[in-house]
């Protein structure tokens, strides 16, 4: 298997050297299309659960930052007095 991969990569490298500018662009587009065929898209249920998880995570982080901001505001007001 490794010998086959090495031979393939050598062939691809040789092909790349022989191709012109537009040939390399065409090769790139073909490789992108091949990779896009491998993509597994999430189902509707997965997408919904991921979206909810992200929104909950953002709400928790926002609450944490808001709490830190409130604490630092109180600490600065205590140290320097509230104008």
At a glance:
The chain has 83 residues and is mainly α. It is built from three helices and no strands.
Written overview of the protein:
There is one protein chain. The protein folds into 2 domains: about 40 residues; about 40 residues. Helix content is about 85%, strand content about 0%. The protein contains 3 helices and no strands. The chain is elongated, with a radius of gyration of 27 Å. The model has no long low-confidence stretch (mean pLDDT about 85). Keywords: Cell membrane, Membrane, Protein transport, Translocation, Transmembrane, Transmembrane helix, Transport. Its main location: membrane. GO terms for molecular function: protein transmembrane transporter activity.
Essential attributes:
mainly alpha, elongated, 3 helices, translocation, protein transmembrane transporter activity, single chain, transport, 0% strand, Protein translocase subunit SecE, 83 residues
What's the average pLDDT?
A: 87
Question: Which stretches of 5+ consecutive residues score pLDDT under 50?
Answer: none
Total tally of structural domains: 2
What does the overall shape look like? elongated
Strand content: under 5%
Q: Determine the fraction of residues in helical runs and give it as a percent range.
A: over 70%
Main sheet, how many strands, which sense, barrel? none
* Gyration radius over CA: 27 Å
- Number of helical segments? 3
Number of strands: 0
